[in-house]
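Annotators were shown the component list below and the corresponding predicted structure, then asked to write short factual statements about the assembly.
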Amino acid sequence: MRMVNFRVPYNSGRLIFVLVVILLLGLLLLPGQFQGVFKQIGGPVGWVLSWPLRAVASLSDGVANLWGGYVALQGVVAENRELRKELDSLKGQNSQLREAAAATERLAALLEFKHHAGFSTVAAQVIGRDTGNWYRTIILDKGESAGLRPDMGVITPAGVVGRIVKTTAATSVVLLATDPNNAIASLVQRTRDEGIVEGTTQGLVRLKYIPMLSDARPGDRVVTSGLVGGFPRGLAIGTIARIDKEEGVLFQSAELIPEVDVDLVEEVLVIESPNVQTEGERLDAPSVKRKP
Amino acid sequence: MRVLVWSALIVGLVPLQSVLLPHASVWGVTPDIGLIAVCLAGLFGGEIHGLLVGLVLGWAMSLFSAADPVTCVTTKGAVGFVAGLAGRHVVYLSPPILALGIFVTSCSAGLLTASLLKLNDQQGLWWAIRTVVLPQAAMDTVVGSAFYWLASSRFNLERWMAEYRM
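Structure shown to annotators:
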């Protein structure tokens, strides 16, 4: 059998060691400049690494589809019968909803709902998870070349997923809303009390700094307040499951059930520009005339 | 040629860790294949190889993580260097010694990471040990030992290491 010799010549080994020590000293003494250099190099390297990442992700999807389509078919006959019953019931509901939708359309036109909170988004696919165990993140298949930048908000039609914290040319890392290091400005939709939503170590989310006199209660929905960048106002975050009031503290806190199951999310929308409207713009109030 | 082999290993390990291993996580914790690879690279290739592979792999993996790149680079580089030193000084590497070595190295790397990362108030040191450091070290030990057992039953690793130490 042919053996591989991994020995490094004495001089080149010492040279490499000295270079690495200089690199580490540079990282410790000049972290900003060195990280800038690494970020520059990281763009193309990330692009190169994204190709095998995508290839393995698509292979993984293929295997999952094969499993779901052909292997995991136990109990499909009974499920089919139930689904047919459900389909008949839904057909009935569908015709009623069409009537309701037509009525809503007419009413909407009458009430002249002109302004909607519009914002531009980029669709992206989840291709991986964090390479470590310290943060809850997902990796998206789009990066700087698609216009994505750190601090952009990430959502699904159901609600908030998280925030981009790192980008390469072809990928982005999204810190999930359930991570304890994430914080999103939010408000209770019914009472309009503002607070900060943070993740918990149990994988849930928690609304902090609710005023002590707030009437918030379990079942209330919590949405983004739009005060800090990334998210426009009104995107769903979760529903209050429990209110915690402790004696001697100035604020209440609430445990939320997240609106989006971040473990199952596969496609997301990245908010390019939140286009946050002021209260006046939202309510179509006349603008204040400024003195010349 | 050697650089190509190491580069291919690094390029292969990143998608393995990021895409496939999350499907095999236990209570949300996955083994750190990068750390195991760096350990074995240091053990068989020496401290310089361990250090270099650790630095490059740490940086490559930090591109796909929210963790600070300096922390990842420092931790993996240190692991590779220490594994290289250990490999040079251990006379006979039995599987239990290897398992113990991987466990201790993984625990040390986990504690170093916990102290370097700016963790949230909820994530104290005890939380880190209980939920990340110890479970990950256990999984790293199992995966690393299994890999070593498979490799040693297929190749003559002792002779390879003996040649290296000559």
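Statements collected:
1. The radius of gyration of chain B is 15 Å.
2. Residues 13 and 19 of chain B are 10 Å apart (CA to CA).
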